[in-house]
Amino acid sequence: MTVAINRAPSLEEFLQLPETKPAREYVNGEIVQKPMPKGRHSRLQLLLCNSINEKSEKQKIAYAFPELRCSFGSRSIVPDIAVFKWSRIPFDADGEVPNDFLLSPDWTIEILSPEQSSNRVIGNILYCLQYGCQLGWLLDPTDRSILVLRSNQPPELLRGSDRLPILKDIDLNLTVEMIFGWLKMSGN
Fold first, then answer.
1. Which residue, of 3, 97, 136, 143, has the greatest Cβ tally within 10 A?
2. Block mean pLDDT (10 aa), the chain, length 188
3. pTM
4. What value, to the nearest 5°, has the Cα angle with vertex 61 and ends 59 and 63?
5. Contact 147, 129 (CB under 8 A)
6. Max CA distance (Å), the chain
7. 15 touches 25 (CB < 8 A)
8. What are phi and psi of 60, to 5 degrees?
């Protein structure tokens, strides 16, 4: 089904459109296509989700969702990783994860692709922080740095052996070099 819209769609109209691969986001009344994830992006996303969930799912502390649509305020975004505290996951009556998350994540992680605008991605992280998100990371695989954003704190640009801040109660110790070390898969 094709929907013809001659003006900028509303958030509600956007949410009625079929999903695409890669995902589209709704930001400031504009529909923006995310770039297709490539090798480095996919590897970092998978290992970060696995590391977070290994330390938080059994204990029901939090859960990291890859590519989860989060619609809140006037935006609908798809962070590379959206981490929700367990108590904030909107389980349905059967205790299952719902399809629709109409709230901001507690921790949002973005992995910058070469064709992405860093300011657009940072804008989404800042928007999440305005809506109650506690922590945002922007990983830049090109220069091996991670920009850390938190509410009411100056941004931090971390590199090398810098230890990364983690969402409270998740017993996970990561440094910038550990994360980017995951990209090396061969023994050469």
1. 136
2. 62 90 90 88 97 97 97 96 97 94 98 90 97 97 97 96 96 97 85
3. 0.92
4. 105
5. no
6. 55
7. no
8. 55, 45
